[in-house]
Amino acid sequence: MSDVDREEACEPAPVPGHMSADLAGYRWMRDRVGQSGGSVFRLHGKLNGPDAFLKHGQDALADDLSDEMVRLRWLAGYISVPALISFTRTSDEAWLVTTAIPGKTAYQVLEADPAAGLAIVDALAVFLRRLHAIPVCACPFTSDHVYSLARARERLDAGLVDVEDFDDERKGWTAEQVWEEMHRLLPFAPDVVVTHGDFSLDNLSILDGEVTGCIDVGKAGIADRYQDLAIMWNCLGDFDRSLQERFLRQYGVVDVDWQRLQFHLMLDEFF
């Protein structure tokens, strides 16, 4: 998907009255990637105003935005994340406005310049090691596989799992088939760290060959390190297998635990 396809110009979305003045003067672009039913807008072009992003969600998605807001505040003390501009929550809706991180997504950079792949992968590995080095004892959020399995089951039972979006290895599978196959990979001994939770190419920004920060941190918390390794490994497979191998090696994985990697890939199918 090209940059043009990933977003489109749009009219300003309805926001609570007290937010209108702060958002006046911006040009709006709707993001067409991700957010599972929520809305994401890039706000730019305001005189003397920073580029920003607005996320809006209802019901469970409003809860997700609340989770992201508190994690942004906490992570800002350790790594580069968007700065919080404003957050508004009602009983069933939420609006989150943050600054834009400089650069383009790692996906955009790799798509535009495949020759930069090795350098970009190395930078991603360095950033992930820095994230995983945050002291677990300082993290107030739990996102381990036991917690995630409970959420996955809730989504499966509610019919919220998009089977059409399964990875190629599981095309044509039902959600129950993935659930059963995933459980055949249990138990395993997790190696817990502070994880991002959705460490994908779309959620990392790159400028001049360096990672300038990460976005979409609503799932951040203590979990098995393969939660992050598996998602990035999967993303890099869209470009070149050698990049997958390079990423794991540069991160510091000597012997790949394929059982844990595959478990987390299957778990991700439910979100």
Automatic annotation (TrEMBL):
It is an enzyme of class 2 (transferase). One of its GO terms (molecular function) is metal ion binding. It comes from Afifella marina DSM 2698. GO terms for biological process: response to antibiotic. Belongs to the aminoglycoside phosphotransferase family. The lineage of its organism: Bacteria, Pseudomonadati, Pseudomonadota, Alphaproteobacteria, Hyphomicrobiales. Its EC number is 2.7.1.95. Pfam families: APH. Residues 39-263 form the Aminoglycoside phosphotransferase domain. This is Aminoglycoside 3'-phosphotransferase. It catalyses: kanamycin A + ATP = kanamycin 3'-phosphate + ADP + H(+). Keywords: Antibiotic resistance, ATP-binding, Kinase, Magnesium, Metal-binding, Nucleotide-binding, Transferase. The keyword Iron-sulfur does not apply. The active site is at D198. Mg(2+) binds at N203, D216. InterPro entries: AGP_Transferase, Aminoglycoside_PTrfase, Kan/Strep_kinase, Kinase-like_dom_sf. CDD domains: APH (cd05150).
